[in-house]
Amino acid sequence: MLRVVFFGPPGAGKGTQAKLLERKFGACQVSTGEILRKAARAESPLGKQTSSYLARGDLVPDDVMVKLVAERLKEPDCGSGFILDGFPRTIAQADDLEHMLKQNGQPLASALCLNAPDDVLIKRLSGRRTCKKCGGLFHVVFNPSAKPGVCDRCGGELYQREDDHEEQIAARLRVYEEQTAPLKEYYRGRGLLREIDGVGSVDEVRERVSRALGDGAK
Ligand code: AP5
Question: Nearest-CA neighbor of 69 among 97, 34, 107, 27?
Answer without folding.
Answer: 97
